[in-house]
């Protein structure tokens, strides 16, 4: 078996490679990356692969039986890039694609969802065997705000009392490795999320508990939160998107109680207290 992972030098990709190495020999794993030299420390074979270069993709996928298509980080260009990978995989004779989609992609109000829906449709029309991992929110998406919260004395957001069923990237990476190496996953779509949802007020309370400081959660209108993010240096479109995702979370868009993730990985997902402690240890 040869398993290839796109975006292998990214935050999720690296964790998937490490999880795979606990299940199959490193010689059966191929890291696909735009700059394969950045994969030198992964201990597996690396090949050049660019979502925007179809011919090179087909060459990189020669001999690959199972492919993990980690969604591109170029929002707005993902659908085309993913279609390139799917076409190249089909031309190269790849047996199965596992794709990292978005929680409830078929009905999610998040601005991210459209490109995932398009990719899922492309997979289904390709005729290739496939599995879809609808990943929920990465805990790191909000844990990344901890330094700013500590500096400013408050955790800011626009998620109101919405519960966020987040899990760590490591949890999601482990699930990907299970599906890539196991049997019975073809044609399956998994809604993956953390076992215990939390509000941003819960996150602020846990941060306060672990630091011994009073770090309250301040819920802001989306426009105000976006302006603060922009003032901190984020491009306006990204700042508005992040605030918008919080607004969707306030309406329940990031909540999922099915516990499919913990069933796949055979253990509870990482609890909030451990995720916060890891973020603080940095």
Describe what you observe in this structure.
- This protein is an alpha/beta fold and 282 residues long.
- It has two domains: 3-135, Rossmann fold; 136-167 and 193-256 and 267-282, UDP-galactose 4-epimerase, domain 1 (Alpha-Beta Complex).
- The protein is 44% helix and 14% strand.
- The protein contains twelve helices and nine strands.
- The protein has helices spanning 11-21, 54-60, 78-92, 113-126, 139-143, 146-152, 169-181, 200-211, 222-231, 236-250, 260-265, 272-281, and strands at residues 3-5, 29-33, 45-48, 66-69, 96-102, 129-135, 155-157, 189-192, 217-219.
- The protein has a seven-stranded parallel sheet, sandwiched between helices. A two-stranded parallel ribbon has the order 7-9.
- The two termini are 36 Å apart.
- The model has no long low-confidence stretch (mean pLDDT 97).
- It comes from Paracoccus zhejiangensis.
- Residues 7-180 form the NAD(P)-binding domain.
């Amino acid at each position: 078996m040869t398993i290839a992972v796109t975006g292998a030098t990214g935050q999720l990709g690296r964790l998937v490679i490490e999880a795979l190495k606990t299940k199959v020999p490193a010689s059966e794993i191929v890291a696909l990356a735009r700059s394969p030299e950045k994969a030198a420390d992964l201990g597996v074979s690396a090949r050049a692969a660019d979502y925007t270069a179809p011919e090179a993709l087909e060459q990189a996928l020669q001999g690959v039986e199972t492919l993990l298509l980690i969604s591109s980080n170029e929002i707005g260009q993902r659908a085309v890039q993913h279609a390139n990978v799917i076409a190249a995989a089909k031309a190269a004779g790849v047996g199965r694609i596992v794709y990292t989609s978005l929680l409830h992609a078929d009905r999610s109000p998040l601005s991210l969802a459209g490109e995932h829906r398009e990719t899922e449709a492309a997979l289904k029309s390709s005729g290739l065997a496939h599995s879809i991992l609808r990943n929920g929110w990465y805990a790191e998406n909000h844990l990344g705000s901890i330094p700013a919260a500590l500096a400013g004395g408050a955790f800011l957001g626009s998620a109101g009392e919405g519960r966020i069923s987040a899990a760590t990237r490591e949890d999601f990476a482990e699930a990907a490795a299970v599906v890539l190496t196991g049997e019975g996953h073809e044609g399956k779509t998994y809604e993956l999320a953390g076992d215990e949802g939390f509000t941003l007020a819960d996150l602020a309370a846990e941060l306060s508990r672990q630091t011994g400081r009073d770090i309250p959660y301040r819920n802001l209108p989306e426009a105000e939160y976006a302006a603060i993010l922009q003032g901190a240096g984020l491009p306006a479109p990204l700042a508005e998107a992040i605030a918008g995702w919080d607004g969707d979370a306030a309406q329940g868009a990031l909540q999922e109680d099915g516990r499919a993730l913990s069933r796949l990985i055979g253990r509870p997902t990482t609890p909030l207290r451990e995720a916060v402690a890891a973020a603080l240890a940095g």
